[in-house]
Write a structure and sequence with these properties.
This protein is an alpha/beta fold and 138 residues long. The chain is built from 5 helices and 5 strands. The strands form 2 sheets. A 3-stranded parallel β-sheet has the order 1-3-2. A hairpin with a 2-residue loop joins strand 4 and strand 5.
């Protein structure tokens, strides 16, 4: 289980957030392979993940001076389908089930990705997700 935090627009002290994660057993902003059973908080930065230019972020939490936001699940799913490894595919299926997303909603988010090659790859991987999850292809 992971929480993806969109860096632009989130307001937090990285040291305080890392300390809070450590105190609760959550891995903070990992850079390598993660045990799929571990819970982690991933800081998503522009350039590392190519997301659409404009999307309305979801507020995850506001605690005093701490505001944490994330891209909407369909946008996260679109970006994960660009890479499309096994964990990404499982994450997309989880988001689709958790939020009741249809393949058409993820496909619409894919259309907003800035690079054509990323859109093409994500569309191919969305067909695979639809087959694995039993949902309708867009």
């Amino acid at each position: 289980m992971d929480v993806d935090v969109w860096f632009p627009g989130s307001h937090f002290d990285a040291t305080d957030l890392a300390r809070a994660c450590a105190q609760t057993g959550v891995i903070f902003d990992p850079k390598g392979e993660i045990d799929p059973e571990k819970v982690y908080l991933q800081i998503v930065r522009p350039g590392i993940v190519r997301l659409p230019r404009d999307f309305e972020a979801e507020v995850i939490a506001v605690h005093g001076n701490l505001t944490v936001i994330m891209p909407p699940p369909e946008v996260l799913s679109a970006s994960k389908l660009v890479r499309g490894d096994e964990i990404d595919v499982l994450d997309v299926i989880w988001w689709m089930n958790q939020r009741g997303l249809g393949a058409d909603e993820v496909a619409a988010a894919i259309d907003g990705l800035p690079r054509e090659a990323d859109r093409d790859t994500a569309r191919e991987n969305l067909v695979f997700v639809a087959l694995v999850s039993g949902s309708k292809s867009p």
